[in-house]
Write a structure and sequence with these properties.
Shape: flat
Distance between the termini: 52 Å
Radius of gyration: 28 Å
Number of domains: 2
Order of helices and strands: HHHH
Helix content: over 70%
Number of helices: 4
Structural class: mainly alpha
Largest sheet: none
Oligomer: single chain
């Protein structure tokens, strides 16, 4: 049979561990909020369709564009978006080509590890 003093200590120990665990969760959540609020994350360099509409409306109001100017500006932004999409496609193709060339150099074990490293890097970029 257990000594009653040991049974009481188990409850206190469990309580302390629970308090420490919950305190760590709260501190982590608070720190994450602070980092998100006070750090500047790089903005996307690619202009997207939604951004185009916002830019058009803003320029239309701020610069007092007439209809012909607004249409010309929209054409320029459309062309710019297409150029960016082409460049992003070229970048992706180039990156994949480089990966393929690297894979040809490596042995089977190294290929597996290389693919794992690439997956980890992709996961970090998404976060």
């Amino acid at each position: 049979m257990l000594d009653p003093r040991i049974a009481g200590c188990k409850g206190k120990l469990f309580g302390m561990v629970a308090v420490i665990f919950i305190s760590g969760m709260i501190a982590g959540a608070f720190t994450t909020k602070l980092v998100d609020r006070y750090t500047d994350r790089p903005k996307s360099l690619v202009l997207e369709e939604g951004d185009k509409e916002m830019a058009l409306q803003h320029f239309y109001r701020e610069l007092e564009l007439n209809e012909a100017q607004a249409r010309a500006l929209e054409d320029v932004l459309d062309e710019f978006i297409m150029q960016q999409a082409d460049l992003m496609a070229q970048f992706k193709t180039s990156r994949l080509s480089g990966h393929d060339r690297i894979l040809q150099i490596l042995n089977e074990d190294q290929r597996k590890r290389f693919k794992k490293v690439l997956q980890e890097l992709n996961n970090q970029r998404k976060d």
